[in-house]
């Protein structure tokens, strides 16, 4: 297996970081970065080795997303949602799904994403309104999914639906982007992560073969909590730790370089030193918390779930705090596009509102530590 982190750092430095400002300004999909990750085999990070992938873990994912987000939040988010889709397929792949999806993913030829959210269900993505209706040996899907990152750039989507019979629970289906009746619309208008192309998906009588079911009917809820939740939460925690680190490094560099007429730098002012200390501590604690939670998840520690949930709370809150401090350090210049700090600040605001949101996670963590049932 190649040194995943070294490979990611090289791509981040050579391809991703140099395009970050342009992708943000033009609000365009980070095609170059995603293709470079594909050529390096990193789109197959969570594909098992026997299917040609790197066989990485959620700890590798969190480390990779942290590096990518420091370079470009949009690229990191697109990569993360692809990895979440990959993790779902990898968890229960049939031999046919392995050939049709996992091997091409490992070769960098297919990009995936999750189509979970619906306007009506909001942050409670585990309670979809769409149902998989049986018809002539196929599933038929009707409805609308919102916030589908990668959007029309994805080749396949993991769609969560109610199963054909309500008592079965939830299904997860692999839907090819070109399926008749599946159509993306709208443009991403969020304040940050401008290139993540998170748009709406319309499903009008989309017919999906039985072979596109992940696992068995009713396996959806288990896949959400055992596969999607740890993968997404640790990956997005890595993203937020990376955004915080990027903003801190930019603010530090600016504080050292910006000189007043008397020759003093910003970094020599005590108030700025206090901010730098705050940011340094926040970045390192968030990053360490995420890494520790990921290591626990990989080992299967008894308290892993608690640490995983809290990692997103900590990383997203610290990303908001650090990017705000970075703007304070950089003053008026930080408020303009002349420095990337304003981009980090806008990008960092997404983490806390992405499901499971900070409020929902705090409730779950609070209940867990207090021994109160989650549901
Ligand atoms: C940049 C970005 C990318 C995304 N990418 C994807 C993607 O690829 N795939 C996908 O499926 N989804 C994606 N999402 C959607 C995301 O995960 C959420 O589902 C979506 O943001 C929910 O928005 P909402 O306005 O409906 O929230 P609402 O459900 O209306 O929530 C609004 C507020 O109320 C709080 N709240 C709601 N219920 C409770 C409760 N019971 N207790 C306490 N507080 C509560 C929430 O925490 C939040 O602060 C993305 C979102 C963003 C911002």
From TrEMBL:
Residues 114-206 form the Acyl-CoA oxidase/dehydrogenase middle domain. Residues 5-109 form the Acyl-CoA dehydrogenase/oxidase N-terminal domain. GO terms for molecular function: acyl-CoA dehydrogenase activity; flavin adenine dinucleotide binding. Its cofactor is FAD. Residues 236-369 form the Acyl-CoA dehydrogenase/oxidase C-terminal domain. SUPFAM superfamilies: Acyl-CoA dehydrogenase C-terminal domain-like (SSF47203), Acyl-CoA dehydrogenase NM domain-like (SSF56645). Keywords: FAD, Flavoprotein, Oxidoreductase. CDD domains: ACAD (cd00567). It comes from the Bacteria. Belongs to the acyl-CoA dehydrogenase family. PANTHER family: ACYL-COA DEHYDROGENASE (PTHR43884), ISOVALERYL-COA DEHYDROGENASE, MITOCHONDRIAL-RELATED (PTHR43884:SF12). This is Acyl-CoA/acyl-ACP dehydrogenase. The lineage of its organism: Bacteria, Bacillati, Bacillota, Bacilli, Bacillales.
